[in-house]
Write a structure and sequence with these properties.
It is found in: Cell membrane. This protein is an all-alpha fold. The chain is 74% helix and 0% strand. Helix 7 runs antiparallel to helix 8.
Length: 318
Amino acid sequence: MTFLSILFALLIEQLKPLRADNPIYASIKGFASHIENWFNAGHAHHGRLGWAVMVGALTVPTALIYWLLMHISPVAAFLWNVLIVYLTLGFRHYSHYFTSIQLALNTGDDVTARALLGEWTKQDTSDLDVSEISRIASEKALITTHRHVFGVFFWFLVPIGPAGAVLYRVAEYLSRAWNEPDHMKFEAFGRFAAQAFYWIDWIPARMTAAAFAVVGNFEDAIYAWRNFADRWTDESAGIILAAGGGAMGVRFGTPNEVAADVLPIDAATVDSLLEEPEGVPGDIPSPRTLQSTVGLVWRALLLWMFLLLLLSVAVWMG
């Protein structure tokens, strides 16, 4: 049932992609905003309580409905699984940005590519050259795919089933919503949400990196993972991007990932940190990198589905 649930959800999403601004997501975002307003009194334990209420309010009903449907009809439970996976997956939520950026770069329209990338990443991209546009778009695509597809796959496979997929997606959203906006940065309230998602994503991030290594250049992916993942302040992102870049033979990241969080710092240390580390494998990103990213993601997806099929067959025969 697990394999078929994911397969049908992927097929439905290919035919009818769920937009990132759909009413269900909007209501969840509104709920998270209300939880923040109700519980945020400036202390870390308020963040823990708010996180537990938010996650529990969405995962517990999901699990109860699944348990009830299993006792009523396996077909109904299967349809519930397909619905939950469809709602939690996001394989094509942001693909229009990536595809449009790729098309713009291929036609030499750098201005449009910068504008689309800025809209997607919510950052100033006015001074980026083609290489930087290609790098950031590819990095964003790999991280987005992991958090909207592969991470969901892993948590859907745990015994709690669809509730695990909901847990992962809600935890991922709260780690961003309660930490990244300017009015929430450095607040104690969102600290637990970030820590909780770190541990929830600990295994999935490494499984995604391993999948990239298997379907790409294995030696370079493992080498980059072991030696250069710590260039990113976000450990999980560093592992995924280092392995992904090594698998494609592309040099992801910039020397600024480490330097950005080192304060105070003298000029000599800044210069040493901004130097490109020796031995970083791969070529400078280019528009062709975007096509390589698409290929890597699809191969990793096929690998996941093949392994899931084998697991389902083994369970069925056992």
